[in-house]
Amino acid sequence: MSATHCTYRTQVAVIAGKEFHDRLRSRWVLAVSLVFAAFAVVTSYFGAAVQGVVGFQGIEPLIASLVSLTIYLLPLIALILGFDALVGERERGTLNLMLSYPISRVQLVVGKYLGLAAALTCATLAGFGLAGVVIALRAPSADWYQYAGFVVSAVLLGWVFLSLAVSASAFCHSRTSASGVAVALWFFFVLVYDLLLLGALVLSGGAVVGPLFPALLMLNPADIFRILNIFGPGDLHTMYGLVSVFPAALAQPLVLGVAMLAWIAAPLGVAAWRFNR
Question: Where, by residue number, does the polypeptide cross the bilayer (predicted)?
Answer without folding.
Answer: 28-50, 62-87, 108-135, 147-171, 183-209, 254-275
